[in-house]
Specification:
The complex is a heterodimer.
Chain A (H helix, E strand, L loop, with lengths): L4 E5 L9 H5 L4 E3 L5 E3 L9 H10 L5 E5 L3 H7 L1
Antiparallel strand pairs in A: 1-4, 2-3
Chain B lengths: L18 H8 L6 H11 L11 H12 L3 E7 L8 H8 L1 H14 L2 E9 L3 H12 L3 H6 E6 L8 H10 L21 E5 H13 L5 E8 L5 E6 L2 E2 H7 L7 E6 L5 E4 H4 L3 E2 L1 H6 L8 E6 L4 H14 L6 H20 L3 H14 L7 H15 L1 H5 L10
Parallel strand pairs in B: 1-2, 1-4, 2-3, 5-11
Antiparallel strand pairs in B: 5-6, 7-10, 8-9, 8-11
Helix pairs in contact in B: 2-3, 2-5, 4-6, 5-9, 13-14, 13-16, 14-15, 14-16, 15-16
Classes of the chains: A alpha+beta, B alpha/beta.
């Protein structure tokens, strides 16, 4: 069982508040309209704490952690 | 290959084939069940709504998740602006579609069949309503019609589920896809009307139909819907529509989520999902649009981008703002002439928008634009200002 985690954004819930990119700029940057672009793939060990904070601090609960997906699921989900 | 075709029988323009005539011509509906799913996997039938997903695999997934309460959605939204083939089928061969839907319901253990039709498709609504009334009481009890708003995204499979559930035809976040969790949480099979009509024939003959419905539009003498054998060269299909009505510049293959091909390369292309995929193309929903040489491709592309931007369901920021920005940049180039900054922005924004919606609307629009910029690279690079005439 894969224990690695990755970030996934619910595009419909996301309002482009941008807190996640301030908390975790190592993995999240904002596009030209202020919506997050997340680096795909598992979160490196040393960033998991900040990733959890980005999830907890999202005012519209649009970002979540989940077990790192297979390549196929990743294409569909992020 | 000379098995029965979808449009065999009376002239499609004569209106719907009645149930008695349909049953006389094709015989009774065979039993489906799991053997039919295997047959669909074996014959390799793919969905005809645009995405081309293998039908047998989808049915298998829904049957596995069904637990006896699955739902079948018969997708006749046909929101693609130039596509007419689903309407031609609904108004001429409604019982082929219902046969396919009932076979699907039996195979995936569904308790409901929802027939989902675009609200502006009046003749199709009439034809399908009448066709249901000709069926047995047991079959009628399974089926109902739901009308869909005339929006581009209303035919997205998650949007069909959303409308049936909540009355709102906008896509929802996936995964899970409708085939796992759809109407009321039940496994839901969303299948295009043409696909189901093919199933009705495959179940009877045991072999692939080997045909596809196409809509030939644009600069041709007799635009319309035609049923062609898979593998037919595109030029032959255009001849069925009377051939080009004037010098042609390019062909848009697959509707507004499709790809542009210069005419020099277009006529020999085979109309076949596999053959096209090898060339990085797709038949999509079967629209073949011919662009005349006198029409400016940049202005045409800008108009389609404005349409696709306005058809965003405005749920996801990158799609709502991104497509609007892309359409505006295209329009600036079309109206005021080429600007190096706008060309740069088109490339950068295309990359930023792709893959970042709940549904595939932004991806479809961006791939359309990227194909246009590749095929009409010189036109985009040297577009003159099209000054508006003053009154």
């Amino acid at each position: 069982m894969n224990k690695k985690l990755e970030l996934v954004v619910d595009r419909i819930k996301c309002d482009g508040r941008g807190l996640c990119a301030e908390i975790l700029p190592e993995m999240i940057r904002l596009d030209s309209w202020g919506y997050p672009i997340v680096t795909p793939g598992p979160i490196p060990e040393h960033l998991t704490g900040l990733a959890q904070r980005a999830v907890d601090d999202c005012p519209v609960l649009a970002i979540a952690l989940r077990r790192a997906a297979t390549q196929h699921q990743r294409q569909k989900g992020t | 290959m000379s098995g029965p075709r979808l449009l065999d029988g009376p002239d499609p323009l004569m209106g719907p084939e009645r149930f008695a005539a349909h049953a006389r011509r094709l015989g009774p509906l065979p039993k489906g069940g799991h053997a039919l799913i295997d047959l669909l996997v074996h014959t390799g039938l793919t969905g005809r709504g645009g995405a081309g997903f293998p039908v047998g695999i989808k049915w298998k997934a829904v049957a596995a998740a069904s637990r006896g309460g699955a739902v079948v959605i018969v997708n006749g939204a046909e929101g693609e602006p130039h596509s007419k083939k689903d309407r031609v089928l609904m108004t001429s061969r409604p019982h082929l579609i219902l046969d396919g839907a009932l076979l699907a319901a039996a195979a995936v253990h569904a308790k409901q069949v929802v027939i989902y039709i675009g609200e502006g498709h009046h003749a199709a609504l009439r034809s399908m309503t009448e066709a249901i009334s000709e069926r047995s009481e047991q079959e009628r009890r399974l089926m109902r019609i739901v009308t869909a708003p005339a929006r581009y995204v209303a035919g997205d499979s998650s949007a069909t589920v959303h409308l049936v559930d909540a009355g709102i035809a906008t896509p929802t976040t996936t995964p899970p896809p409708p085939r796992e969790r759809g109407v009321g949480g039940a496994a839901t099979l969303v299948q295009n009307v043409e696909t189901l009509a093919h199933v009705a024939l495959v179940a009877r003959t045991g072999t692939a139909t080997g045909t596809v419905l196409i809509t030939v539009a644009g600069a041709v003498r007799a635009p319309g819907v035609f049923e062609v054998s898979l593998g037919t060269p595109l030029g032959e299909a255009v001849q069925l529509a009377g051939g080009p009505s004037e010098a042609a510049r390019a062909v848009l293959l697959g509707g507004y989520f499709g790809r542009w091909v210069e005419v020099a390369d277009a006529w020999s292309l085979p109309i076949d999902p596999h053959g096209l995929r090898e060339r990085g193309l797709s038949l999509g929903c079967g629209v073949i649009g011919v662009l005349p040489a006198r029409q400016c491709p940049v202005c045409e592309v800008a108009g389609i981008m404005r349409y696709l931007a306005s058809e965003s369901s405005a749920q996801c920021g990158p799609c709502f703002f991104g497509l609007r920005a892309l359409a505006d940049a295209c329009t600036r180039i079309a109206e005021r002439g080429t600007d190096a900054g706008d060309l740069q922005r088109l490339l950068r924004w295309s990359g930023e928008v792709q893959g970042r919606g709940a549904c595939k609307h932004p991806d479809g629009a961006v791939m359309f634009l990227q194909s246009a910029m590749k095929t009409f690279g010189d036109d985009f690079a040297h577009h003159p200002a099209h000054l508006r005439r003053s009154a």
